[in-house]
Amino acid sequence: MINAIWGVREVPFKREPNQLLKQQQTIFDIIQIHAKQGGFSVVLGQPGVGKTVLREHIEKLDTTRESTVVSCSRTMHTYRQIVRQLADAFKLDCTDKTIEKELINAAFSQVKAHKTLYILIDEAHLLEIAALRKLRLLFERFPKNHNLVLLGQPELLHALSLTANQDIKSRITYSAHIKPLNDDDLQAFIIRELEQAKMGINTFDENAMALIIRSSEGNLRLCGNLCLASLIEAARETQKTVTITHVNQVLVQPHWRSHEQLIKQQVT
């Protein structure tokens, strides 16, 4: 529908991002530096601020000659299941009894091939500390040319800050907190998405743009979802300019309402 109304091939806010925002790019660059001498990195942020985009860009390093990237996302699993994911990524055929030794050998093989190893664990705040401790002991036996990167919500660092977990926290070589975007950054993100989709930067009128930015509260994912939904509302009316009316048609949907607003609506 959007393609037909605006005459574009790519739909903005839906395509795979090909450019990191400034704070994401800084983190990406530093993670690569730490990987050269053995790193343990922690990247924190609330849902929707850009951790997934950052992870996807690190995963793209796997397509280069110099890097191997192993990404684990099912972090509610046990230590044994996570190392099995690692073994699958290395294409290892081994038993549970020999899996740790085979993983270490595979890591050294990467170094001999002059490759840097990145091990990404997404949603790491869901990982049990006992499993994380075992992983830390395993990765200490890996060669120096690797970086273990934990991506999770801020409560991950709170858990690591407990006295009982200082053995893990003290080994962190780099940490970063992806913060919500300010209004100017959100507007720049929206304009960039429109330009790359070859749509006019005035597709959202001034009032619509202001309401989207205010309602997104610095959250990159919410901003993208709200922009896309507003475009759909405008397309339904065969309008090429998104107005505040179209944005409000999205914001009245239940999932955009706060818990207090939903309760109040049910009472009235």
TrEMBL record:
This is AAA family ATPase. It comes from Catenovulum sediminis. InterPro entries: AAA_22, ExeA_AAA_ATPase_DNA-bind, P-loop_NTPase. Residues 37-160 form the ORC1/DEAH AAA+ ATPase domain.
